[in-house]
Amino acid sequence: MKNKLRRRLSNTFWYIILILGAVICMLPLYWLIRSSLMDLAQIFQLPPLWIPHPIHWSNYREALTILPFWRYFLNTMLITSINVVGALLTSSFVAFGFARIRFKWSGFLFGCVISSMMLPFAVTLIPTFIGWRILGAYGTFFPLTVPVWFGGGAFNIFLLRQFFKSIPKDLDEATIVDGGGYFRIWWQIVVPLSTPAMIVVGLFTFLNNWNDFFGPLIYMDSEKKYTLALGLQLFKGMYNAQWHLMMAAATVVLVPAIIVFLIGQKYFIEGITMSGLKA
Fold first, then answer.
1. Which residues touch 69 (CB under 8 Å, ≥6 apart)?
2. Is the per-residue pLDDT at 84 higher than 90?
3. At what angle do helices 243-274 and 2-36 cross, to 10 degrees?
4. Is the peptide bond before 127 cis (omega within 30 degrees of 0)?
5. Is the separation of the CB atoms in 224 and 67 below 8 Å?
6. Beta-carbon neighbour count of residue 74 at 10 Å?
7. Which of 117, 144, 262 is nearest to 213 (CA)?
8. 141 in the Ramachandran plot: left (φ > 0), alpha (ψ -120 to 50) or beta?
9. Contacting residues for 226 by C-beta, under 8 A, at least 6 apart
10. Which CA distances in Å does 8 have to 15, 16, 18?
11. Torsion angle, alpha carbons of 31, 35, 40, 43, to 10
């Protein structure tokens, strides 16, 4: 009886800690939504208002019409879609080679790929920018989409390689006996069995590109080619900022990312867990 009571008290304590942690984590999101439903004066009112009164739903209509929001949305969707497809195809193809095919220097090459993650982004920023400018791609979507089609990223390769190594190689041998090659093993055997890991890669790629601000800031020279993350900063002028409209637009931008994460969270946890089963 005492053990059962102690266990209940322990569970109650940890539930309280988790609830408090969730409230703290959700507070910035609530503050964002709360501010999006206020006028500019209410946002800076002291003491702060926790519940908007009155509620200004017109902020959303004004925020989505004062700027070419839907053009920014289409630009972001185009870049994100191209990069998600590119990351899934190329990273899985490279990871398959490292996980299932033994060749000379494979371990060394994989180490080089992993070591590239330790290279700071700022180190390659200027040479990469100069290279794209020489190629005449400055002001286009190519610098934001083409690189992902050459390997899909070191982290994605590492994640998928770990998952692929957990798949029994007996399936490869059976496919080869049936007359299939490595391409068929990759496309028809390994990729379908790696749905959780593939969803994790797609989810990471989607979120990284949907929220990317630095890339479009560097390479986009026209407002017509701005993405959502870059378009949000237009609500801030030199002398004032329309914070209520920015909060409304930011809330709308946040919705697709939340929906995608909620849909893929089950596979996200499963893919991260299973990717570390075999080194």
1. 63, 228, 231, 249, 252
2. yes
3. 140
4. no
5. no
6. 13
7. 144
8. alpha
9. 71, 72, 75, 216, 220, 234
10. 10, 12, 15
11. -30
For residues 259 and 212, is the Cβ–Cβ distance under 8 A?
A: no
Flag whether pLDDT at 273 surpasses 80. no
Domains (ranges, CATH) in the chain?
58-274 (1.10.3720.10)
Sign of CA dihedral 248, 252, 257, 262: positive
Distances (CA, A) of 105 to 43, 102, 155, 164: 60, 9, 20, 19
- Which tokens is 203 given? 């989810």
Q: DSSP 3-state assignment of 178?
A: coil
| H helical segments located in 119-194 | 121-134, 142-145, 154-164, 170-177, 182-184, 191-193
Contact by Cβ (8 Å): 251, 32 = yes
d(CA 268, CA 22) in angstroms, rounded, equals: 19
Residue 241: beta bridge partners? 236
Across 36-45, 69-78, 261-270, the highest mean pLDDT is recorded for 69-78
The mean pLDDT value for 132-155 works out to: 93
Nearest to residue 100, comparing CAs of 170, 192, 155, 152?
170
CA distance 250 to 49: 20
How far is residue 28 from each of residues 94, 130, 220, 229, 247, measured CA to CA in Å? 39, 38, 30, 18, 12
Structure pTM? 0.87
Fill in the amino acid letter for 195. T
- Please report the DSSP string for 6-66 in residue order: HHHHHHHHHHHHHHHHHHHHHHHHHHHHHHHTS-HHHHT-SSPPSS-SS--THHHHHHHHH
